[in-house]
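task queued by scheduler; priority normal; single chain, no ligands, no partner chains; default sampling; output format set to C-alpha cells
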Amino acid sequence: MNFKDIEYFQQLVTEKNFTKVANFFQVSQPTVTYAIKRIEQELGVVLFIRDQSHHKVELTAAGKLFAHHATSLLTEWKLAKKELQQLSDEKIRFGLPPIIGNYFFHEFSQALLEEQLLNYLELVEGGSNELTKRLKAGRLDMGVVGSIHPLRDTHLISEVLMIRDFVIVVSPDHPLATRSSVSFHELAQEEFLLLNEHYIHPMALQAFATQAHINPLIRHQGQDLAILKSMIRANIGIGFLTELAIFKEDGLIQIPITDHDQPRFWVSLVRSHEAPESGIRTQLIDIIRSLLHEEKTV
C-alpha cells in the first residue's frame, strides 16, 4: 500500500470532496480518485459513499474503521522517517587521548567498521584534562579519558574501565635502565620530560613529588607523545608516563615506582548528562566495554 494514497484518503476524510483534496496536494483530481480506488481494491471494501448531488463523499462503516488505522499508520510512518533521518545525520563527538587511543584504537576501529558505526563518530583528540573539560562543557558527547582518581561530576556519567600504574621511562643507555624498580625520592636530581597541562601527568607527577618531599626538575613539557618518546630515547631526560603509553617497539625501559599509596591511571568511559540516548550510542558503549572493561585491574 502506498503511503501517499493513505495521505490522500486521510485528507478526503477531512475535506469530503475530491477537488479540494486535489487542490490541497496540487495534483489532478483523477490522481486522488485512482488512489482511493487502489486502497479499496486492496482492502476489498468500499470506503466512501459518493453524493453526486452535493459533490461530497461520506465514509462507510469500513471507511470509518480504516480512517482510525490510517491515522496510526501515517503517524508511525512519519515518526520512522524522522528517526531514520536523525540516525543518518547523527554524529557522536568522541574524545580520545592519544595514549589511550594508541592502546586500543586498532581493535576499536575494526569493531566500528564491522558494526558500520565508523561514519557516526567525530573523533576529537587531546589530553585527558582538556577532553574532560570539553565533556563538562557539553562540547563532547562521550569519551574515554584518564584521571588520577575516579571521576565524580554532576555533569557527567562516568564508568571506570581499567586502572594502570605510572612508571618511570628511560633510554636503554640511562643509568637507571638496569633497575628493576625505583622510589620517587631517588629521582630528586633527575630531569623529567613530561606531557603538558592538557594531560593528567603533571598532576600525577606533583602528587608523587609531594609524597616523596622533592621538587622535581622539569626539563621539557609538550603535548606530542611521539616527540616525547624520541627525546627519552635520545637520553635527554627521563619520562614519567602511564604504563599504557609504552610499547615494546618504542625501545624504551619502563621502571615500576615502589612508593606506597601512589596515584594511578584510571581509564573511564565518560558521557555528558545532556547527550541524548540512541541505539548508536548504546552500540558504541558496548564495544568500548568489550574492549577495555575486562582488562580492568586493581
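post-processing summary
- The chain has a mean pLDDT of 90.
- DSSP finds nine helices and twelve strands in the chain.
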